Amino acid sequence: MERGSLVVPDGVQVVIKEPKTYHPFSIHYIALLAPFSVFGVLARLGLSALTTYAGQSIFSLAYSQAVGCLIMGFLLELKEPISRYYPPAYTALTTGFCGSLTTFSGWQLDIFKSWLNVDNVHRAPLRDAMDGVCKSVFTISLSLASLFYGMHLAKMVSVYFRAATPPGKSLRTAATILAILVYAATFPAYFLLPRDYRHQATAAMLFSFPGTLTRYVLAIQLNTLVPPFPLGTYAANTVGTALLGIFHVLQSTSNHALSGASCSLLQGLADGYCGCLTTVSTFAAEIAALKTNAHKYRYGLTTWATGQIVMVCLFGALLWAGNIGKSQTCVFDG
User: Fold this and answer.
1) Structural contact between residues 228 and 290, judged by C-beta atoms closer than 8 angstroms
2) pTM of the predicted model as reported, rounded to 2 decimal places
3) Is Transmembrane among this UniProt entry's keywords (predicted)?
4) In this structure, are strands 3-7 and 13-17 parallel, antiparallel, or unpaired?
């Protein structure tokens, strides 16, 4: 491990350990992503349940997007001290927790449902369009505002974050083992907890880590190929939105009734895998980080438009052909 030195005002030379380097695909990174993916999806589902009620003023998904981006902004500003202490911890908090707390695919489906007036609210078609525009503009505006406010809060408290000694081998090993055990616990939780928990949370917990891991691999492999356009995140958001469209179609098919277990698994794939494969927090952070306005608008609008085109092709086409209904026909266990 390399060492550096710092001379403090009284002339004493202090030796500072440089942070240990880890391969992006080392067990330290991969294992720590797992529990934070579970925590992120649970926080999203919990916020959604808490903010869904009759007469709500703001659509429920806005809360998880705002909170996730706020935490992301806070962590971005504190990247140096957190990474100096333990780089996998920074990735687990940002890619794992914030990326799973926010969801791009759920946002795209929510917008498309507004265009279609899935809830069959008595209103003119122009109001359907306005509802979709509102969810589009409001979400991205709120996400960016939350991101910058999180950075602002971090600047206020950054003076209190002192350089800490990086964890030793035993502590790193313990953290890795604990992370694996936390995710492993999602398997017995799915089978042992009541069946009505499956579509509510346990199925999503099961599929959360695979979704986050797919997004992480795509980002590592593709994001550097075109610097002004983060291709990895774009691919993750596009693929996740396409999969969510497919799962929603399967849940809305009236010709072939699905079993309760199948419906619960589909909901788990939608909330867990697609929800964690796609992200608004990283999407907003990348928009903010791009150097020119042209790059920002190109990346943001292209990603949004691709998501809506995917929804039209996979969900809209079958709906307008009369093969599926607007609402889900799945009946869950419980």
Assistant:
1) yes
2) 0.91
3) yes
4) antiparallel
Per-residue confidence (pLDDT) for residue 323, from 0 to 100:
72
Token pair, residue 124, equals: 């003119």
Point out which residues pair with 281 in neighbouring strands: none
Q: What is the pLDDT of residue 254?
A: 65
10 Å CB burial of residue 333 (0-12, 13-18, 19+) is middle
Q: How far is CA 119 from the centre of its chain?
A: 26
Residue type for position 100 = S
pLDDT in tens, 107-145: 999 999 999 888 778 888 899 999 999 999 999 999 999
The contacts of residue 76 (CB under 8 Å, 6+ apart) are: 94, 147, 150, 151, 154, 285
The residue extents of the domains of the chain are 3-320
Q: Residues 6 or more apart from 269 whose CB is under 8 A from it?
A: 203, 207, 243, 247
Q: What is the pLDDT of residues 268-295, one digit of tens each?
A: 999 999 999 999 999 999 999 999 999 9
Q: Provide the H-helix boundaries in the chain.
A: 27-50, 61-77, 79-85, 87-91, 99-101, 104-116, 125-157, 169-184, 186-192, 203-222, 231-251, 260-268, 275-277, 281-289, 293-311, 317-320
Which of residues 65 and 334 earns the better pLDDT score? Answer: 65
Q: How many Å apart are CA 259 and CA 100, to the nearest integer?
A: 28
Q: Over 90: is that where the pLDDT of 64 sits?
A: yes
Asked whether the beta carbons of 203 and 264 are under 8 A apart, the reply is: yes
163 three-class SS: coil
Q: How far is Cα 18 from Cα 137, in angstroms, rounded to an integer?
A: 43
Which residue in 130, 132, 127, 140 sits closest to 114, CA to CA?
Answer: 132
Closest CA to 43 of 61, 25, 30: 61
Residue 257 is classified by DSSP as: P
